[in-house]
């Protein structure tokens, strides 16, 4: 992974090439939207790849992460939903020094950890510990896109994708 803005732009291009999104479905956040997400992090230092992602794809990215609360403005409700889940179902899950930025179907929670800058962690209800799912957000999203592409019968790498 390189420079965050370049990495995100390459990823956006790949989403269209993989037929996971049409160009008009790639919508980023404005600076006011990004500022709201930063504010919701309550001083947590958000990774540069995440900020670049928000600016380029933060509102919509085609079929990427369908069923996951991840895009703006829904991302703003993730911390409160996570706190409610933890109080009810996972009281031992530590929240201090973490920023929860996505949840899937109310039982999987994605977060960044201050002690491991940039890495993406996933906690799934019933698991003892969270696991690392990406060294950066873009690395994690590439895996998700590859999986979605494979399910669609498309190849990630190669000369051309079927039309």
From the structure above, extract its key features:
single chain; about 160 residues; alpha+beta; SMI1/KNR4-like; five-stranded antiparallel sheet; 5 helices; about 20% strand; disordered C terminus
How would you characterize the overall build of this protein?
The chain has 163 residues and is α+β, with helices and mostly antiparallel strands. It has one domain: SMI1/KNR4-like (3-Layer(aba) Sandwich), CATH 3.40.1580.10. The chain is built from 5 helices and 7 strands, in the order αβααββαββββα. It has a 5-stranded antiparallel beta sheet.
Structure in a nutshell:
With 163 residues, this protein is an alpha+beta fold. It has helices at residues 4-17, 31-40, 48-57, 78-89, 137-151; strands at 26-27, 60-61, 68-69, 98-104, 108-113, 116-124, 131-134.
What are the secondary-structure elements, in order, as H or E? HEHHEEHEEEEH
By DSSP (H or I, 4+ residues per run), the number of helices equals 5
CATH class, please?
Alpha Beta
CATH fold category name: SMI1/KNR4-like
Q: Report the β-strand fraction as a percent range.
A: 15-25%
Give the tally of β-strands.
7
SSE blueprint and pairings:
Layout: H1 4-17, E1 26-27, H2 31-40, H3 48-57, E2 60-61, E3 68-69, H4 78-89, E4 98-104, E5 108-113, E6 116-124, E7 131-134, H5 137-151
Antiparallel strand pairs: 1-2, 3-4, 4-5, 5-6, 6-7
């Amino acid at each position: 992974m390189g420079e965050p803005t370049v990495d995100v732009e390459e990823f956006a291009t790949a989403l269209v090439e993989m037929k996971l999104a049409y160009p008009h479905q790639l919508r980023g956040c404005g600076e006011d939207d990004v500022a709201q997400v930063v504010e919701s992090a309550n001083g947590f230092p958000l990774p540069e790849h995440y900020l670049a992602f928000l600016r380029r794809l933060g509102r919509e990215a085609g079929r990427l992460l369908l069923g996951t609360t991840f895009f703006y403005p829904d991302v703003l409700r993730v911390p409160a939903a996570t706190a409610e889940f933890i109080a009810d179902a996972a009281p031992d899950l530590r929240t201090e020094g973490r920023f929860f930025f996505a949840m899937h179907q109310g039982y999987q929670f994605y977060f960044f950890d201050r002690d491991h800058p940039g890495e993406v962690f996933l906690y799934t209800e019933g698991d003892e510990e969270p696991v690392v799912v990406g060294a950066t957000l873009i690395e994690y999203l590439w895996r998700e896109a590859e999986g979605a592409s494979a399910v669609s019968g498309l190849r990630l790498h190669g000369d051309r994708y079927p039309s």
